[in-house]
Specification:
InterPro entries (chain B): AAA+_ATPase, ABC_transporter-like_ATP-bd, ABC_transporter-like_CS, ABC_transporter_ATP-binding, P-loop_NTPase
Strand content of chain A: under 5%
Distance between the termini of chain A: 21 Å
Oligomer: heterotrimer
Order of helices and strands of chain A: HHHHHHHHHHHH
Chains: A mainly alpha, B alpha/beta, C mainly alpha
Number of strands of chain A: 0
Strand content of chain C: under 5%
Number of domains of chain A: 1
Order of helices and strands of chain C: HHHHHHHHHHHHH
Helix content of chain C: over 70%
Organism (chain B): Saccharibacillus kuerlensis
Keywords (chain B): ATP-binding, Nucleotide-binding, Transport
Number of domains of chain C: 2
Protein name (chain B): ABC transporter (ATP-binding protein)
Keywords (chain C): Membrane, Transmembrane, Transmembrane helix
Shape of chain C: globular
Structural class of chain A: mainly alpha
Shape of chain A: globular
Helix content of chain A: over 70%
């Protein structure tokens, strides 16, 4: 069953590109107000940086130092728009409410591939019009230059691409839960909260208590923010990318399996 | 429902609109790059006259239809009448009270239903919404229960009494909403497209209830609609708005007459027919069939008997059908 | 009866009626939420976990560095819990104020203008939010923080009524900030960006003692966006004996002033809405 669907999944590149570019284009008309929104996002980032600056006045900030932590927060805050702020459940809860879901499942395109392509367009838009502006505003506000002269950016962006895919998978799984509960938006918020903690958004993972570090490394979250940030700061081993790749594979399989279960559930309910 | 005071009220108009005007300023949206950002700082405005110099009086107990194409100023008028919007100039009196200086007092005298929105609580069962509204309007438990009993019978409210509003069908929701608007027993009811999106049965149900409210309880009703059946079956009086101005105000028959749309006559001839070279100017041919002929005639200008006599000259008549102009057609003519 | 005694009577009746309305709303909201027990439980547990993970972010920093600007881990927990309680109170009753944007975008505000109440008073009872998760989390942290500080003799039982007072005035301050922010929507329609700064970011900032921040930012958080009045200022007196007992009348006065200004602004915005309909 799964292998058959994977075949479909690979087969239709043109369609996926079209879906992605449509999602991208839908956003582009609002880019003016979105650019203003970035200001709010940068204020948040600035606030978090201020907390570290304040802490740095009384304490040494370990292997990062004050500048290092400012760079750290700058990169994670900008990356949130790629790895955390995705569409709630990829829009599945909405289509479950309206009953659209049974139609979506009947299409000749696999639901996961369909929604993933759409969300990829959304994330591409957010990267260009949110992540980059937030990154630049924060560099300016904190008086920083790109870490390591920007030489580490390509590798960090590669890791971030992986984290975009991971966030699509997690969004999809949250969306599917909407078939069983009306409270799936709580899972969405919960995911963002856990992200803040286990992905090392505000606090570098090595400063977490040991038990929490163990939990974190048993999950895909470190690869969504922490790993790209380590690569950006020039502290990470490129082998971290293998972890990203492994989690991408695992989550893809879980998503395909979940679709299978969902299809059965929808069929039993009669749509 | 207390109807003993009707006699005293007839002196005072239920709705009085005097020279109502409303203009909106909308910022000019610039095109090109960063349009969104630039329009935030732009100080250029375009003035749109949504409603211009509208005046009318509605007497207590009337049932008035207010129609017009989208964007003609219908909703803007309704919003000004109900105290939601302030007019740029002109004034409104509802039973003598100005809804703009005295909004809250007016609000307890009127019921308002928006077809596309609900005033009920989305997550609560229907009956709980009524309880909360009763408190909001200061309706006693006794009055509330008595009225709801009446409405429940007329609108079949019982079938969804305990259902959360979000689970109601559109027709059920509209019934529940109209009952909610009548809970405090207002004299005056405003309905903005109450039948929009409903199926035939639901429409019939709602029209029946509105008729009862108007005829048996003496409520004054003003409704906007796109459905001409609403107008034809309910309203004795129609007001038409076009381009922000009142273009017609009179009875439905007057409206029909004013347009003077042709009556269509379909004649079946036993052995075919022959069109004469010269015929009455008031008859024009709509459709030619082998044995049947459809003509349009203006009955304001020519008597029906004269027309039938003329048609009889063209062949031996087997059957005649007459169609009055379609109401939709009339309205289309008024809007044009 | 003279005119002067009639008026207060009528107002009294209206107020009593409004309170009854609210109690009814609370009762029915709870009842309808309880019909879907599983969803309610799941939502509450997740909300508590979200809150807990937010507190963990603060707690881990403290565990790593000991104290922040000389504030102990219990004191910071106290700051966090007071903010949680005030915010929960504000959002329980004022959630619709926070969500005014959707009313503006979908034109739902018109409906409220046809009600015989001031618009704000018809808006607030449109929903009653049950925030059990936040209450659980706030209570847990508060008990822990109180336990620690009572045990060390830093505070006495007197701190409890004082804290309750701070939570109440804090809720009023947060409501006023929320209302003023929402009112901006009458001009801009979209307000989520502004809320991000005046509500979310500001409340996050106030989880730490304000001395942590640059002076201008600390000043801003005590005046323009006075979230510091919710937890930081009361904590200075209640926990650390700084300032003086006059903090309480000051808090009450500031909360009243903030509310009054926000209401003025709201009325102004409302009249703008009614004359432009935008």
């Amino acid at each position: 069953m799964i292998s058959f669907r994977t075949l479909l999944y690979n087969g239709n590149t043109r369609l996926y590109l079209a879906l992605a570019s449509k999602a991208y284009a839908r956003n582009i008309q609002y880019r003016g107000s979105h650019l203003l929104h970035n200001f709010a996002s940068a204020v948040f980032g600035y606030l978090y940086a201020c907390i570290w600056i304040g802490l740095g006045r009384d304490h040494s900030l370990g292997e990062y130092g004050m500048i290092g932590m400012m760079q750290y927060i700058t990169f994670t805050q900008a990356s949130l728009w790629v790895s955390s702020f995705t569409t709630n459940g990829l829009g599945i809860p909405q289509s479950v409410r309206t009953g659209q879901i049974s139609l979506d499942l009947m299409r000749p395109v696999h639901l996961f591939a369909h929604l993933a392509a759409k969300e990829a367009g959304q994330i591409a838009y957010q990267f260009l019009y949110k992540s980059i502006p937030v990154y630049l505003i924060m560099l300016l506000a904190l008086g920083l230059m790109p870490a390591e002269g920007g030489r580490t950016l390509p590798l960090a962006l590669l890791a971030l691409t992986g984290s975009a895919y991971l966030s699509i998978c997690i969004g999809y799984l949250i969306g599917i839960s909407a078939l069983w509960t009306t409270e799936s938006s709580w899972l969405h918020w919960g995911n963002q909260a856990i992200m803040n903690l286990l992905a090392g958004f505000f606090i570098p993972l090595q400063w977490l208590p040991l038990w929490l570090q163990q939990i974190a490394w048993a999950s895909p979250y470190p690869f969504m923010l922490y790993a790209p940030t380590q690569l950006y700061l020039g502290k990470g081993d490129p082998a971290l990318l293998l972890g990203t790749l492994a989690w991408c594979t695992v989550l893809t399989l879980v998503c395909l399996l979940a679709t299978h279960v969902m299809r059965r559930k929808v069929e039993v309910q009669g749509g | 429902m207390n109807t003993t005071h009707v006699g005293q009220r007839t002196e005072q108009a239920a709705i009085e609109a005097i020279n109502l005007c409303k203009s909106f300023r909308t910022p000019v949206v610039a095109g090109g790059k960063f349009a969104g950002v630039r329009s935030l700082f732009s100080r250029e405005y375009k003035v749109k006259e949504a409603v211009q110099d509208i005046g009318f009086t509605v007497k207590s107990g009337e049932f008035v239809g207010y129609i017009g194409p989208n964007g003609a100023g219908k909703s803007t008028t309704i919003k000004m009448l109900t105290g939601i919007l302030h007019p740029s100039s002109g004034s409104v009196r509802l039973a003598g009270v100005d809804p703009h200086t005295d909004r809250r007092r007016c609000a307890s005298k009127i019921g308002v239903v928006f077809g596309q929105r609900s005033q009920l609580w989305w997550d609560l069962p229907v009956k709980d919404s009524y309880d909360i509204l009763a408190h909001m309007y200061g309706v006693s438990d006794k009055d509330k229960n008595r009225r709801l009993d009446e409405f429940a019978g007329l609108l079949d409210l019982n079938e969804f009494w305990d259902t959360p509003v979000r689970k109601l069908s559109l027709g059920q929701r509209m019934r529940a909403d109209i009952a909610a608007a009548m809970l405090h027993d207002p004299e005056l009811l405003f309905l903005d497209e109450p039948t929009i999106g409903l199926d035939v049965n639901a429409k019939r149900n709602i029209r029946g209830f509105l008729k009862v409210l108007n005829e048996q309880f003496g409520k004054t009703i003003l409704l906007t609609t796109h459905d001409m059946d609403d107008i034809e079956q309910l309203c004795r009086r129609v007001m038409v708005i076009g381009g922000g101005r009142l273009t017609f105000d009179g009875t439905t028959e007057e409206l029909r007459r004013k347009i003077g749309l042709p009556t269509q006559i379909k004649v079946t001839y036993r052995d075919g027919y022959r069109l004469p070279e010269e015929r009455l100017l008031s008859i024009h041919v709509v459709e030619l069939g082998e044995h049947t002929l459809t003509v349009g005639v203006n009955r304001q200008k020519t008597r029906t008997m004269d027309i039938l006599r003329e048609l009889g000259h063209w062949g031996e008549i087997d059957d005649v059908e007459m169609h009055e102009p379609d109401f939709e057609e009339i309205i289309r003519q008024v809007y044009m | 009866m003279t005119q002067s005694t009639q008026m207060p009577n009528r107002t009294n009746r209206a107020i009593r009626r409004y309170i009854k309305l609210y109690l009814l709303l609370i009762r029915t909201s709870i009842r309808s939420r309880m019909q879907y027990r599983f969803n309610f439980a799941l939502g509450s547990i997740l909300a508590a976990l979200i809150q807990l993970s937010e507190f963990l972010m603060v707690a881990i920093v403290l565990a790593k560095f000991g104290a922040v600007q000389g504030w102990s881990v219990y004191e910071i927990g106290y700051l966090f819990a007071v903010m949680t309680f005030s915010k929960t109170l504000y959002r329980t009753f004022g959630d619709e104020v926070h969500h005014l944007e959707s009313y503006l975008v979908e034109g739902e505000l018109d409906q409220l203008l046809t009600k015989p109440l001031p618009v704000l008073l018809s808006l607030m009872p449109r929903s009653f939010r049950l925030m059990l998760g936040e209450v659980i989390q706030g209570t847990a942290i508060m008990i822990w923080a109180f336990g620690g500080m009572l045990g060390s003799g830093q505070i006495t039982w007197w701190a409890i009524p004082q804290t309750v007072f701070a939570i109440l005035t804090g809720a009023v301050v947060l409501f006023a900030i929320g209302l003023a922010t929402a009112t901006c929507g009458f001009w801009t329609t979209r307000i989520s960006m502004l809320q991000n700064m005046t509500e979310d970011a500001a409340q996050t900032a106030a989880r730490y003692p304000l001395t942590l921040y640059p002076n201008w930012m600390g000043g801003l958080l005590l005046t323009a966006i006075p979230v510091g009045l919710v937890n930081y200022l009361p904590a200075l007196y209640i926990l650390r004996g700084e300032l003086g007992i006059w903090v309480f009348p000051l808090l009450a006065a500031a909360a009243c002033l903030a509310l009054l200004l926000a209401l003025r602004f709201w009325t102004f915005g409302m009249s703008k809405y009614q004359s432009t309909g935008s």
